[in-house]
Write a structure and sequence with these properties.
Blueprint (H helix, E strand, L loop, with lengths): L4 H12 L13 E5 L6 H17 L3 E5 L6 H8 L7 E6 H10 L11 E17 L7 H10 L5 E4 L5 H13 L4 E4 L3 H9 L5 E5 H10 L2 E6 L14 H4 L7 E9 L4 H15 L2 H8 L4 E2 L4 H21 L8
Parallel strand pairs: 1-2, 1-3, 5-6, 5-7
Antiparallel strand pairs: 3-9, 4-7, 4-8, 4-9, 4-10
């Protein structure tokens, strides 16, 4: 058979899309780096996805927790790994979109060094208060903070964490000054919040929900544009008119930037199939998570927009290098 020039070019293009090793990918176990310790939000999402991706890929997906320097150590390790599809990263808002604004000398560029496979799920944050806080709503709290600079205290799971950024940006947009009390993890922050030693904590809604339902803390607002179905009586920060905040903590899969397009496409197909499973939707919805079903271009646009917006807000709030 004699091929036309057009057919020959098309055949060559198709072969180029499948470099050596891509056609039979995966042929060994895949490592999924989680840049935080076991048991946290990153880890929970990673294990839900890994357990369901493995049978679809025909290989084990092994979660590897690589914490250190916040989320920097694990993220850098994934970004610098061989681009063969056998090392993936569980990326989130914090290590992909917040870190570029926080750390001028970040040892990785999330847009240049990593390729998004896809975003999987998103949670809002809930601003919760100690039970005996005299101010019963966000408007009263902000009025008190404005009249008493530095008197109101808020906890976080550490400087530069999502909880810190959510509270500090709200503080900045509302034009008030509060006192940040950083802890080493959310558990210690909750202990002092429930003990009355700190006033506020802006935590992931899935975790905050359990404490709200137990009656140990009081919810004041959520960070997303819309109210959350599991506590519909709690307004959004934006809805109150106090600050134009719209913040959700998303998580997804990323690969080293030079990973072959054919491998990325295979991973995207399998991730989309996993996110369409009813039990995955139920597992995330049970904790207030919203499954994300974005195409490749939508995913890139979301990430690019969040990096630009949060870098601007973080710098405006004086949080670069997590200095507050």
């Amino acid at each position: 058979m004699i091929l036309s020039r057009r057919d020959a070019l098309a055949l060559c293009a198709g072969m180029a899309a499948f470099p050596a090793g891509a056609a039979d990918y995966p042929s060994q176990a895949i490592r999924l780096i989680v840049p935080q310790p076991a048991g946290g939000g990153f880890d929970t999402v990673a294990r839900i996805l890994a357990d369901r991706l493995a049978p679809r890929l025909g290989q084990a997906v092994v979660v590897e927790n690589r914490q250190g320097a916040g989320t920097i150590v694990g993220t850098q390790a994934a970004a610098q790994a061989a681009a063969d599809g056998y090392t993936l990263l569980l990326g989130g808002l914090s290590n992909i979109a917040l870190n570029p604004g926080l750390y001028p000398s970040l040892p990785y560029d999330p847009e240049k060094d990593l390729a998004p496979v896809g975003l999987a799920v998103s949670w809002s944050y809930t601003l919760i208060a100690r039970k005996d806080l005299p101010q019963r709503d966000l408007a009263a709290l902000i009025a008190f903070a404005r009249a008493n600079p530095g008197r109101v205290t808020y906890a976080s799971a550490g400087r530069g964490s999502g909880q810190h950024i959510a509270a500090a940006v709200t503080e900045h947009l509302a034009g008030v000054r509060m006192t940040h009390v950083p802890y080493r993890g959310a558990q210690a922050a909750y202990q002092d919040l429930m003990g009355g030693r700190v006033d506020l904590f802006f935590d992931i809604s899935s975790t905050a929900r359990a404490q709200v339902e137990a009656g140990t803390v009081r919810p004041l607002a959520v960070s997303s544009r819309q109210r959350q179905p599991f506590h519909p009586d709690v307004p959004s920060v934006a809805e109150t008119g106090i600050a134009d905040l719209d913040m959700e903590s998303w998580f997804g899969l990323f690969a080293p930037a030079a990973t072959a397009p054919a491998i990325l496409e295979r991973l995207r197909r399998e991730l989309a199939a996993v996110l369409a499973l009813p039990d995955v939707d139920t597992a995330f919805a049970r904790t207030g998570g919203r499954v994300l079903k974005l195409g490749a271009e939508e995913t890139r646009a979301q990430i690019r927009g969040d990096i630009e917006r949060w870098t601007r807000l973080i710098r405006a709030a004086g949080l670069t290098e997590a200095a507050n």
